[in-house]
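Saturday, quiet lab. Running sequence design on the structure tokens for the scaffold JK sent over.
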């Protein structure tokens, strides 16, 4: 799942080397925390959060097929 997040986010940012994903797995859910360069946060969120919503839709759809736990994506 981390590779999917990175493959979606890296092409849209100016500093792809600074993009990383941290995973926190708990009993009922998994939290993926997307960390980017501070100048790229606006590109990842997008106008009115449209890019972030799109990224989350792709991640949640892929996670629904692979995991039985609820998946969350935090953008930081």
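Result came back. Writing it out in full:
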């Amino acid at each position: 799942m981390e590779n999917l997040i990175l493959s979606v986010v890296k092409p849209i940012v100016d500093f792809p080397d600074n993009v990383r994903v941290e995973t926190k797995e708990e009993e009922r859910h998994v939290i993926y925390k997307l960390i980017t360069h501070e100048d790229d946060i606006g590109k990842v969120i997008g106008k009115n959060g449209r890019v972030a919503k799109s990224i989350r839709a792709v991640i949640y759809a892929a996670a629904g097929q692979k995991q039985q736990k609820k998946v969350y994506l935090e953008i930081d």
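Notes for JK: The chain has one domain: 2-75. The domain at 2-75 is CATH 3.30.300.20 (GMP Synthetase; Chain A, domain 3). Ask whether to fix the surface positions before the next round.
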